[in-house]
Fold this protein.
Amino acid sequence: MVEPNLVSGAVWIVCGLAILGLGSLIAFRGRVDLHANYDESVDPAHVARWAGGTALLMGLLVVAYGVREMRYGFQPSLLAGLVVALLVLSYLSKLFASGFGASE
């Protein structure tokens, strides 16, 4: 029988790698059109830098959580912290994609 923590951790890692893949396309390849909230009037370099970097941070957090869960097991407070961090970073990413902080 497989440990549930291994399965859950593996799912978190796969999801984190998917987020990292999309974040790297936005941040390194400049594919800012992949962001759902991208405003075309905003400088693509700004969106690639900030929204892409935020997506990369989100992916790293999810992968780190998955590895931690596989090694040490489930802990509800860490999952709650991850969810809150992802919500905050998602909101920041939407702000950056819509032009927050861009010089006009």
